Amino acid sequence: MPTQRLAARLLVASALVSSSTLVAASPSSAADTWTTTVVALPSATTIDFGQAIEIEADVDSQSGSAPTDGTSTLLARPATSTTWRAVATSSSPLTGFSDVEPRMNTDYKVVYNGYEAGSAQEDSYEPSESSTFTIEVARTISYPDGGFELKGRVKPRYGKRKIVVRVSKEQDAGYTKFTTIKTDRRGRYSLTLPRRKGTWYWSFSVRGDERYLPTSFRWKTWVS
After folding, report:
1. CATH class for domain 33-138?
2. What pLDDT sits at residue 163?
3. How many of the other CB atoms lie within 10 Å of CB of 105?
4. For residues 198 and 193, what is the distance between their CA atoms, to the nearest angstrom?
5. What is d(CA 35, CA 129) in angstroms, rounded to the nearest whole number?
6. Nearest residue to 68 (alpha-carbon basis) of 120, 124, 109
7. d(Cα 72, Cα 109) in Å, to the nearest integer?
């Protein structure tokens, strides 16, 4: 009988050890941390001064699913600056940016700030940022509806600067320099074109610089 009781105790002890081992070996319920990527797509890359664009931002993760928590921020670096600054923040990484109006040639990128899970049932996401892209801005030139007397304005910031006027008998070729005029301090210009017999085509153009693209318009006159 003592031998049987000892065997029974050993069996129970063995069962307890086995059960304890199984509990300790159960898998952890901790969530994962995923890397992310950001893709930003502007609705246009070249615009006239005063126009606005939209920027679509897409945040994805290594898990294959887009994170729904965290914020995305649009950063801008104008041509005259070396510093990035935040211009808009989205409360959701799945939302883009509308009515973005660059005032000059500007670099942009979208930064996702990541997300740190608040419980063991949530996943965490690491921060990331999109590639840099550039929106180029062209100055604008206003002009009348018709006639030989042309008046208008170049915007923005084009005071006391040159406008080159060229002329041709053909609409798309053969332009030669006619004259160079200068704007006033507010960027306004005026010029009376000669009443040449026949049909003539005129080109008014301003040069570009680090801040703005070159821009121009064409004009037609005719005298029978």
Report:
1. mainly beta
2. 98
3. 20
4. 13
5. 11
6. 124
7. 10
DSSP 57-116: EEEEETTSS---SS-EEEEEEETT-S--EEEEEESSTT--EEEE--SSSEEEEEEE--B-
The fold for domain 140-223 equals: Immunoglobulin-like (2.60.40)
**How far apart are the C-alpha atoms of 171 and 199, rounded to whole Å?**
10
Q: Is 121 helix (H, G, I), strand (E, B) or coil?
A: coil
pLDDT at position 224: 92
Cα separation, 215 vs 208, in Å, equals 7
CA distances 53 to 42, 90, 99, 183, Å, are: 7, 16, 6, 29
Q: Say if 33-138 and 140-223 have the same CATH topology.
A: yes
Phi/psi for 10 (5° steps) reads -65, -35
Determine the Cα–Cα distance for residues 193 and 165; give it in Å rounded to an integer. Answer: 10
Q: Where are the domains of the chain?
A: 33-138, 140-223
Tokens representing 7 are: 């065997």
Positions in the chain short of pLDDT 70: 1-30
- What amino acid occupies position 204? F
